[in-house]
Structure formats: C-alpha cells, structure tokens
Design a protein that fits this description.
Radius of gyration: 35 Å
Low-confidence stretches: 1-30, 321-331
CATH architecture of one domain: Roll
Order of helices and strands: HEEEHHHHHEEHHEHEEEH
CATH topology of one domain: Chitinase A, domain 3
Number of strands: 9
Helix content: 40-55%
Structural class: alpha+beta
Distance between the termini: 64 Å
Number of helices: 10
Amino acid sequence: MVNKIMKTTSGALLLALLAVLPLLTGCGDKAIGADGTVIATYEWDGKPHHITLEEMQQEISELPEYKQRQYQDKEGLETYMLLMAESRLILSLARDRKLNEDPELLKKVQDYLHELMVKKITAREVDDKLALTEDDYLRYYEAHKDDYVRPAQVQLLCITLTDKARADEVFAEIKAGKDIAKAAQELADRGELVGPGANPASPGDTDYISRNAFPEGTEPFLDAAFDADIGALHDGVIEVDVQGQKYFMMFRKDEARDAYQKPFEEEDVRKNVVRKVERERRNAMMAEWVTQLRESAEVKTYIDRIPEAEEETSEPEPEESEEAPAEVQPE
C-alpha cells in the first residue's frame, strides 16, 4: 500500500486533511466496531470511514522485520496510524480523479500482475522442487577443486616508478645502505610511487600477490619476485612494459607461501559451491520445464513470416571546406 512507503507529513497538514482523527490515549477512547477496534475515523465525500487496530497490526506484520521495529512502541504505532490515514485520503482523492480508470496505470497494473503470476508459477514448478543434498555440493566441489586453489603468493617491499633515471638514483641509494622501506615512505610522501606498493597507508608493502593478478608485460618482475630468496633485495631495477607504458621496479622479498587447496568446509568455499550448484540445477530444471510446456502446447514458429531488418543507410558525410578555419586571435 501507499502508506508503507510514504513519509510522515507534518501534524498540521494531516489535521487539515482529516475531519476527525481520535488518537489512542487510554481504554476509554476505544470504540469497538463490527470490524474491530476503531482507532481513527475520517469523512470523505460525505461518507464516514474508519481504521481499525487490527488493520494496522496486520499491515505492520507484513512489513520487513527492520521496518516492524520502527512501529513497536506507542509513538511508532501513532506514526503508522497517521500514515494509514494519510494514505487512504490520497487514494480517495486519486479515485475521485478517476486515476483507477487511467489506461496507462491499468496497463502497468496488468503488466505487474503478469510478472507476479510468472514468478509464482515458476516458484511452484521449479524453485519449490529444487531439492539438493550435501552430497550434491561435495560432488561439485570434487569436480571443480581447481577452482578453489589459492595460488602461490609472495609479499614484497616494492618501489615502482615511471622515470628510469629516478629509479636508478633511488636504487643506488638503497644499494649504498638506505633502507628500502624508508625510501618507499619518502617517495610516497612526494607522490612518486605507482603500481604495487603504492598504497599510501603502507608504502612499498604489496601484501600477498599472485601471478594471475598482474597484467601482461609484467612477467620479468613476477619471475624475479617468485624466484628470489626471502629477505633478499633484487639486484637491479626491472623494466616492464604494460600497454606501452614503461615502469621501473625494485623490491625486497619479505614473505612467500605455497599454493593451497581450500577445503570445502571453508565458509567462502561452501557458500560459493552452494550458490553455483543451486543455480545450475535451477537453470536445468527451468529449461526442462519450459521445454515440456512448449511440447505440450505443440508450439509452432514461423520464422519466415518475420520481416528482415532494414539495413541502416548511413548519412553522407559533409564535404570538408577547402578553406582553412580562421584562427582565433587573442584579445
């Protein structure tokens, strides 16, 4: 309903809209009607209308849980009661303006109804019949174990620059005894670091990196990084070319870890497996169900009756003027 998405308006505006709106202040203010406990009344087009406590409670129970929590105390219930009244007034005005007969709105209502019907029947015929077991998940995992391998990784203290002369200068300082971490911090402070290790929060630290995380052209750097000994400074500046841009890299290898087969029991692995198995099984069931529908209805198609798409005719390009454009002269 509209009241479930509207914001509270000011009390003054609402009082102006409502002819009568008694609030719950105690047991003596309640009136028991045929449909339940009346908590608000108003008039529209000379006719009395009312809102019951039971209607409000039912509506609130249909809201998402986080929304329901907003309407648990007295103040929240009063707010929702006002929203209900406002919503009904606005809907009454819309009916008076014949919006319930508007063709555009009716078309949207019909489209939405069809969408809901398709979702409902699909849920009944496919989703509700989707029965999977732990064995199904385990079989998928065993068949796709390679997808759940963390590759070999290294962690470096790396400096990457775009200027060769600058890189040679920095490397010479490090070879002469300057700590590479200090050099990385100074370069970061000057905004010179790029690429791996350029994180300003931890200059030079690449965290754990794997070969498949880097673009083509960085192979010389990766080969050197994975072949180096722990704690060793690579003896030289490595030049790489990535899409025509040259980078100059130097590093110290701090950590390394081998490839690791993630077990099925690992939370992220299990979630991924369950999601993929359910999607595959659902897609298969959906295709089978739709195929059965087509066959039972003896669907025939006549592709030859569909007209060919007309070829787009390109607009002729305007002829260039032989005269050169006049240059804009400075004032």
